Amino acid sequence: MFQYEELKNAMADLEEDKVLEIMEEVKQTGENVQEAMEACQKGMEVVGKRFEEGEYFVGDLIYAGEVMNGAMDVIRPLISQAGTGPKTKMILCTVKDDLHDIGKNIVASVLNCNGFHVIDLGVDVQPETFVEAVKKYDPKVIGMSCLLTTSFEPLKNCISAIREAGLDKGRLIMIDGSPINQTVCDFAGADTFTNDAQSCFNKAREFVESSR
After folding, report:
1. What is the mean pLDDT of the segment spanning 36-54?
2. Interval 119-140: pLDDT, tens
3. H/E element holding 142?
4. Taking Cα atoms as reference points, which of 80, 91, 95, 60 lies closest to residue 177?
């Protein structure tokens, strides 16, 4: 039987072997894929909290990201594709002063497998870098990930730069991360927010379909 709490705790404790062992079991059975992704994400939320509390350090964050990437690689073939044809472009990053690629990588995996072409700009992205990327790639959806409360101001600065450049028209600006709520969304000036990869995909898909 799939052990949600065991996987979440293994991810939070950075037990790579245990995480990969459970993910391999999920792959073999072909079941509980969504639950496994959610458990990993919840574990990474604990990692973020431990970092903010000084229990984990930057090296732990980097290692956590590597463990998460490995976990997603195991079950990537099981993430169902939603249709074929041209993919909608989406730009994604973690904003300035935030080194997490945790939630961002999960979002990228889900959307890439479901009709989107995700252009991942990485972590600690400056507003001007993001603006240039929007000009270059002309995405329909703009996504910004944030796991630290200290990154709320950089979120706002990045979105302000996009709007000031007139690049927000006809696009969805979405922010994602465990500490994000409607208050943060309003503060940052985003169009909407989500707290998990599936909700991010759902909102992005709804926006694209409504824009056709």
Report:
1. 84
2. 999 999 999 999 999 999 999 9
3. strand 141-145
4. 95
206, HSE (Cβ side, Cα atoms, 13 Å): 8
Q: Whole-angstrom Cα distance, residue 152 to residue 148?
A: 8
**Token pair of 201 as six digits:** 């995909």
Residues of 3-34 as b/e, b for ≥16 C-beta within 10 angstroms?
Answer: eeeebbbbbbebbbebbbebbebbbeeeebbe
103-112 tens-digit pLDDT: 788 788 778 7
Residue 113: per-residue pLDDT:
67
Q: Provide the residue type at 125 as one letter.
A: V
- The DSSP secondary-structure symbol of 32 reads -
Measured CA to CA, the distance from residue 58 to residue 142 in angstroms comes to: 26
Neighbours of 137 (CB within 10 A): 13
Tokens for 55, please give them.
């229990």
Please name which of 5, 26, 161, 43 lies closest in space to residue 144, comparing C-alpha atoms: 161
CA angle 4, 44, 26 (to 5 degrees): 35
Q: Each residue of 142-173: pLDDT tens digit? A: 999 988 888 899 999 999 999 999 999 999 99
* Token output for 80: 């169902």
Question: Distance of alpha carbon 53 from its chain centroid, rounded?
Answer: 22
Strand partners, 92: 120, 143
CA angle at 146 for the pair 142 and 152, rounded to the nearest 5°: 100
